[in-house]
Amino acid sequence: MTAVGLLLGLLAAPADAGTVKITSATTSGVMASDENGSYEAKKVIDGKQATYWVEGGEGSGLGSWVQLDFEAPTTVTALRIWNGSWYSYDFWQRHSRLKEVELEFSDGTKVKKTLTDDKLVELVSLDKSVKASWVKVKIKSVYSGNTFNDTAVSEIQVLDDQPVSHHKVSSWTASSVYPEDADGNYNPVNVEDGLADSVWCEGDSGDGTGQWLQANFGATGTVSKLNWINGNAASFGLFMKGNRASQITLAFSDGSTEKLTVKSSIRNTEVTFPARKTSMVKITFDAITAGKEFPDLCVSEAYFSE
Asked: What is the pLDDT, as a whole number, of residue 17?
């Protein structure tokens, strides 16, 4: 399997706060492209954790920065950072990672934060919200890589004070999970992180038929839509290699069910069904479109709304 995942139990990307729309990313410098690819600033906002920005400064890039410009002035409450190169666990160890950062906002506010040296998605909360049209993340110190001096950042999300448009999920559970490997893990919480290349994959010996994925809301609400990416959307090649669902059954907390035929598409698709008041939705996979190489069923993203 080749997809990088988040660790189970970490904060899912949507949570209570909305994600700010970022229109562009600029930087003080970029490491030159090599046989492994390119490292532009836009890699931190491309919705994939396997691509990453690498600063182009001297040594470990102290003083280097990446700036994210918002679509409109926004009240910022936190940042979520995939620190280091998440291409693989090996690459994460090889490259240097952020340790101390200075967050500078368009209104002149400056905040210093210290990050942990763990391959976990880090929520960097602000003590006081800031109204801004951009944020600049400046490197003040680093955790040194075991091979390269250059410092990498895979993805940054900015959170605002607006509620999300879909139901908050308190926990995700699944019938099985594909074992973690050198590329990361495949835990169910990955379907709610806003990234296309972190996925849940079932770990059963079959093709995924009969396996299930369940969203637990923690409170009763009305749902009538599922927006999801069915399959592994890390790349078109991986999408075609892995299994996708073709028929599913949705089960609700009142005991009712809904059987649906779903599209096999690498893009986000919306599945509609009669509205239900429920505290959970269980997706059981009834029929599978087989991939060309991997016999495991994967889902990249999944969000329920009214």
From this structure: 62
Q: Which amino acid is at 80?
A: R
Positions in the chain whose pLDDT score sits under 50: 1-16
Confidence (pLDDT) at 119: 92
For the entire predicted model, the pTM comes to: 0.85
Domains of the chain: 22-160 (2.60.120.260), 171-305 (2.60.120.260)
